[in-house]
Design brief:
The complex is a heterodimer.
Chain A (H helix, E strand, L loop, with lengths): L3 E4 L2 E4 L5 E7 L5 E7 L5 E8 L2 E5 L6 E7 L2 E6 L8 E8 L9 E2 L3 E5 L1
Parallel strand pairs in A: 2-11
Antiparallel strand pairs in A: 1-3, 3-8, 4-5, 4-9, 5-6, 7-8, 9-10, 9-11
Chain B lengths: L2 E3 L4 E5 L4 E3 L2 E3 L6 E6 L5 E7 L5 E3 L5 E5 L4 E6 L8 E8 L7 E3 L3 E6 L1
Parallel strand pairs in B: 2-12
Antiparallel strand pairs in B: 1-4, 3-9, 5-6, 5-10, 7-8, 8-9, 10-11, 10-12
Classes of the chains: A mainly beta, B mainly beta.
């Protein structure tokens, strides 16, 4: 069973479109994250949610809107896509009752903007 | 603010040789430290973690890492690499807990020569 699953794996779309990426975890974790990995493979946190509440928003443009319908799901909606949004987006989850718990990552969604 | 430095962008080692990947961190309190590995087209897999206690930690796939507070380092080692170890390796520091996420280094690309 996949612990953290993201769909789609690949997303190719045109500038200006709106798209969503879905993420689900079956680990029973209470915290979920979105990270962005750029073309140089640098990973940076975008958002974190704990029990459906937004905890971190790392100065991400408001075109990006995460939504957590329940603590097992954290979706990412992106409006008005720009060329600079091309990247790999990773979802992750952890159990943050005790700080410093390791995060479990999905396989990523490669977003390409034409 | 915390930061992680991986000074080697690329490292090439021969199969069967020993490996050491360097990681230095900057963090004001006791750090939570992690090493992750990313194979091409895959997500991040946790190799090992350090929270407290024994400064030499063992991980999966024969990897180990040593926490040295005096040097602010958490270097990853393996006594004998296999061709399947070729991947991108990321060192990360926990940002303090409470769903704060991870701060990653820029990664080290490991190449294995036959």
């Amino acid at each position: 069973d996949t612990a953290v699953s993201q769909t789609p794996k690949y997303l190719v779309t045109q500038m200006g479109n709106d798209k969503s990426i879905k993420c689900e975890q079956n680990l029973g974790h209470d915290t979920m994250y979105w990270y962005k990995q750029d073309s140089k493979k640098f990973l940076k946190i975008m958002f974190s949610y704990n029990n459906k509440e937004l905890i971190i928003n790392e100065t991400v443009p408001n075109r990006f809107s995460p939504k957590s319908p329940d603590k097992a799901h954290l979706n990412l909606h992106i409006n008005s896509l720009e060329l600079g949004d091309s990247a790999v987006y990773f979802c992750a989850s952890s159990q943050e009752v005790t700080p410093g718990q390791p995060q479990h990552f999905g396989d990523g969604t490669r977003l390409s903007i034409l | 603010a915390q930061s992680v430095t991986q000074p080697d962008i690329h490292i090439t080692v021969s199969e069967g040789a020993s490996l050491e990947l360097r990681c230095n961190y900057s963090y004001g309190a006791t750090p939570y430290l992690f090493w992750y590995v990313q194979s091409p087209g895959q997500g991040l897999q946790l190799l090992l973690k350090y929270f407290s206690g024994d400064t030499l930690v063992q991980g999966i796939k024969g990897f180990e890492a040593e926490f040295k507070r005096s040097q602010s380092s958490f270097n990853l080692r393996k006594p004998s690499v296999h061709w399947s170890d070729a991947a991108e390796y990321f060192c990360a520091v926990g940002r303090g807990g409470g769903a704060d996420g991870l701060t990653f280094g820029k990664g080290t690309h490991l190449i294995i020569q036959p």
